[in-house]
Amino acid sequence: MRVVIADDEPLARERLRSLLAAQDGVDVVAEAGNGEQALHACAELQPDLVLLDIAMPGLDGLEAARHLASFEPRPAVVFCTAYDAHALSAFEAAAIDYLMKPVRAERLAAAIARARTFLAGRDGQPQDHRGQQARSMLCARLRGSLRLIPLDDIHYLQAEEKYVVVHHARGEDLIEESLKSLEEEFASRFIRIHRNCLVARHELVELRRGSGGQVQAVLRHGKQPLEVSRRCVATLKQELRHL
User: Fold this and answer.
1) What is the 3-state secondary structure (H, E, C) of 121-154?
2) Any residues with CB less than 8 A from the CB of 16 and at least 6 apart, and which?
3) pLDDT tens-digit profile of 60-77?
4) In contact, 145 and 152? CB cutoff 8 Å
5) pTM here?
6) Are strands 2-6 and 204-209 parallel, antiparallel or unpaired?
7) What is the CA radius of gyration of the chain?
């Protein structure tokens, strides 16, 4: 079993590494000090199990787990934390176990046994186990690495075959998520202007008619206006009145 340890406290990582060394067939392949480092390690190394602290600087363990739930193959996630207040959120983020610090050897062994059971049945399980709390970033996976895109940097999202193209402040990236699921999760941030396009509400500047009579949306940072479908025009006009 290939394991990644993610904790911002070096002593906590050392303790987990020591406990894991006593477990047969377990190999620690990487350590991380925050959620972003953990995601990069998982994208590159595809571990079987991730031991995640929750309270970490930057991207915390809960949000990292929500991103890991969309990885394929999806690693088993076990939270190791000093606080019991996050247990419900942890299981909503598809964790298979929740260990309190200081982690005891017998509890870690039980969590590893759960992870083995999870891995044995993983191939036949659905991959969409997103938690209820919205993410603050989208995650684009790029040939064994990844790029985290803050939602505040996104201008619009455009469906293209089985991918969604994220147009953001630093360029464009592809993500393997559906436009419909993104619209549902981030309804307060994005509004539909076409069956294949969601626009960040803060990017909308005005609606105008093109030379052919087609309504177009002008974006604050858009290189060119975007086509608006007739069924979305009324909703967009109402939205612009409230901006």
Assistant:
1) HHHHCCCCCCCCCCCCEEEEEECCEEEEEEHHHE
2) 5, 7, 51, 80, 103, 108
3) 999 999 899 888 889 999
4) no
5) 0.70
6) unpaired
7) 21
